Amino acid sequence: MWRVPIADSETPFALLARTFFAELFASESVASEIQLHRVFVWVFAFLLLPGFFLLVQVFPAYQIAGVVAVAHHRPAQIEAQLNQILLLIVTYSMVTTGIVALFVWDHLNIERRDAMVLGALPLTSLTIVGAKLTALAALLLGGSLVVNLVTAIPFAFTTTLGGWLTLVRHVAACLVANVAAATFVFAALVAIRGAVMLFARERLANILGALLQFGFVVALLCFLIVLLDYGLRPSASAFFVDGAGASVPTAWFVGLFEWLLGVTRPSVDALATRAVLGTSIAGAGAVLVSIAGLRRHMQRALASAGRRGPVPTARMTRLLARTLAGRRPAARATAEFLLLTVARSRPHQALVGVNLAVGVAMIAAVLSSHAHTLASLVHPRTATFWAPLLLAWWAMIGLRAAFFVPAQLPASWVFRSHAPEPERGYWAATRAALAALTLPPIAGLTLVLLVPLVGWPLAAWHLLIVCAATLLLVEVVALTIDFVPFTRAYQAGHARLKTRWWLYVLGPFAFAYVPVRIELHLIGHWVALLEMAAWLLAGAAVLEYVGRRRAHRWTIGEPDDRTDGSSALTVLDLAMPAGMAPTG
Amino acid sequence: MLTIEHLTKWYGALPGIQEVSFEVRPGEVLGLLGPNGSGKSTTVKILTGLMRPTSGAVRLDGRDIFDALQAYKAILGYVPEEPHLYSHLTGPEYLRLVGGLRGISRPALDEKIDRFLQRLGIYDDRYQAISAYSKGMKQKMLIAAAVLHNPHIIVLDEPFSGLDVSAARVLKAFVRALASEGKLVVFSSHVLEVVEQVCTRVVILKSGRIAGHDSVANLRTMLQLPSLDAVFAALTAEEDVESRLHGLLDAVHAGSAVSI
Ligand SMILES: Nc1ncnc2c1ncn2[C@@H]1O[C@H](COP(=O)(O)OP(=O)(O)OP(=O)(O)O)[C@@H](O)[C@H]1O
Ligand SMILES: [Mg+2]
After folding, report:
1. Which of A161, A392, A508, B154 is the most buried (most CB within 10 A)?
2. Spatial separation of the C-alpha atoms in residues A551 and A481, rounded to whole Å
3. Which of A83-92, A110-119, A353-362, B108-117 comes out lowest in average pLDDT?
4. What's the distance, Cα to Cα, between the start and end of chain A in Å?
5. How far apart are CA A253 and CA A274, in angstroms?
6. Atom nearest to B9 CA in ligand 1
7. In the listed set B103, B123, B151, which residue is the last one of a domain according to the structure?
8. Which of A230-239, A314-323, A436-445, B200-209 shows the lowest per-residue confidence on average (mean pLDDT)?
């Protein structure tokens, strides 16, 4: 009979759960060398930012409103505001959880590789699925407790006037409601991704992940803007809050909170029931999908070496980039490599996406505060005209950031070994890739956005200016790079946010706001507008010349001697011989 | 002629290779042989110009390769030991990248790539990302990329790993044929039969130093041994197979978690 003694210290389940948990924080996708802990710090800071504004904007405003309401004997008023705040807190919890879940999107379900490795070991499916879900639950609870404690405790202090017991009850109720809300979102995302993986290709799951990630980041940023607005004009957040009917999950969890505090209104009961039901269904869905996924993988792993299927090719964009890159084969090849990497690497897309999300949020903020009706947008104005430029700016910032994150660093010997000469082509390729990736979508967006609003002629004029300005920006950004993108080890803190933050703030102003103001001023003076476009293009041409002159200084990948492929550069290489710890 | 003179490479305080000298003549396949960790890959990486030696030199027709590195790389083809490929690209995309970097322009390159893929039996997988390729297919990509530009010097680091029997037979003949065209071929391998069949001369490395260097036939007669296998064992003074086998079996049984 087979007997499998268990190690004295740890059960296979615990070991497995711990491994799955660690896996959440390890990236082995295309960009494996980025220093993840730094990214985590940034993501976390980003997630906690709205919490901070809740503290400094919303709670004080509420307290003042409370004093006013008491003075005027209008308890209903404060009641309404309390509900608003609760909605904000619950939304915050849900949005942050969504972002955390999307950050580890690739690891939300059991992967084929897990099935292949674990299938060979004497473990039951229950152990494997249980361990995976335990690891996910640990992430969920850890994350949402931190985020929600930040809001729950001050919230309880702000809203309770009673003694300690009431205070504790408020904190507990707030935490339970928010963690439930977080669980709902997290479990729903696990179930959705699992279902997509079950019934469709991995590719679809990736696209969905990218879209959801983008959506949640935009949501968080918009949320931030609502909060910023809150203290100034409480009514501005009304649009955000009023829509929350019984069909919106946020409202369910507010109901749950009230129910936990012992409020007995039929509507509260109904909402709380929905909250509990919704969370249970999402949770059960996540469990079922995980089990089904493991089964499926086990069968497939045994059946065949399951291929991935065709990959995105970005044909038109590549064609454009090839054309822009010039005649040299090396430049063309490099431009194609850059485009294909952007088209296929999720971590790099995520970087661009997050930056774009900032742009979208900025546009949304301006639109929501300056344009009260749709009709007011129908004549030329900054709020609409600067949108394409703003997106071009953030897309370019995102692309540049992505270029600094290596893709499959060990493979970069390809450039060192096969490239026969220091290539001017690399600069040409980078600039071509930047232009090919930004110009067509930005141009399309300009037309789609402006033609219905201001008509063809004005939209066409604006298109000219937008394209000229974007080209100029492409040249500027190309000047700030001096290596083949994706082939250099990530240098922590290259973004130098501490010293360069003003660039990120002033950039949109200088690049999007100022040109649009000038342009709006010149509308009707067509010659002057043409002149403006010509000036922008002349600027681009000068920079093009400078770039060409500097191009020979470009380096390929690493300077010598760190060149032995994988060893010195990979951060988490357990096979690394002693004495070869990564430096720097 | 490629001359390797007193190459020494230190990895920090660890010696990689020490005082390695030999030469490679046109039309010849030089085999680099040695146990794991003996310095074959280190030698090869220096030969390709990807890594600089701590001391010593590599000369092509008397000229140090590091003085004209780009020109040297332009006539060099290299198959690295590990298949580090851009695995998000498909096979043809990868070869187009390499060919482009080599300066081969498009229509000719495409045709060339198609022929390579067909001959190597990966044509049907041309729309797959390399991440979905098998080990042998990746190895074939490396080989194709190395000879795409018809190089004059070819350096292969364990090119047979992962190849099936028929592909290995083709590669053996291919290597010999390339050499007979007057190219210089350096070839590191663990597979003794292959080295015996393909190489004209061998350099046997042990712990980073040259333990033997001659033609296969000479080495055999000199040491009065029947096979390269025996020559290798004698020169590298490996523990005999029996005692290593017993040591390994003991290790397998020690502290075993499962018993019957
Ligand atoms: N990047 C590195 N850092 C430190 N030491 C290294 C590194 N690469 C190789 N070495 C050391 O140099 C010596 C020679 O290694 P090398 O890779 O050249 O051996 P090899 O003959 O190719 O072995 P194998 O047959 O396993 O491929 C070994 O002792 C190894 O530990
Ligand atoms: Mg080796």
Report:
1. A392
2. 10
3. A110-119
4. 53
5. 8
6. 12
7. B151
8. A230-239
Domain that holds residue A529: 315-553
Fill in the amino acid letter for A475: E
Which pLDDT band, with edges at 50, 70 and 90, does A580 fall under?
Answer: very low
Q: Do A274 and A319 fall within a single domain?
A: no
pLDDT band at A96 (very low <50, low <70, confident <90, very high): confident
Task: Find the CB nearest B13 among A341, A345, A579.
Answer: A579
Buried-state track A546-577, b at ≥16 Cβ within 10 A, e below 16: ebeeebeebebbbeeebbbbeebbbbeeeeee
CA torsion angle A228 A234 A237 A242 (round to 10): 160
Same domain? For A224 and A324 the reply is no
Q: Same structural domain for residues A296 and A375?
A: no
B189 shares its domain with B105: no
Number of domains in chain B: 2
Question: Which of B10, B46, B75, B101 is most worth mutating to test chain A (most A CB atoms within 10 A of its CB)?
Answer: B101
Percent of chain B with pLDDT over 90: 44
Sign of CA dihedral B164, B166, B168, B174: negative
A294 and A341, same domain (yes or no): no
From A558, A560, A564, mutation site for ligand 1 pocket: most ligand atoms within 8 A of C-beta: A564
Q: Whole-angstrom Cα distance, residue A514 to residue A508?
A: 9
My answer on whether B177 and B108 are in the same domain is no
Residue B192 Cα to ligand 2 midpoint, Å, equals 15
pTM: 0.76
Please provide the average confidence, as pLDDT, over all residues in chain A.
Answer: 78
> Bigger pLDDT: B103 or A62?
B103
Half-sphere exposure of A508 (CA within 13 A, CB side): 23
CB neighbourhood size of A352 (10 A): 23
Q: Taking residues A546-555, what's their average pLDDT? A: 82
Residues B200 and B159 in one domain: yes
B216 touches chain A (CB under 8 A): no
| Phi (first) and psi of residue A583, to 5 degrees | -105, 150
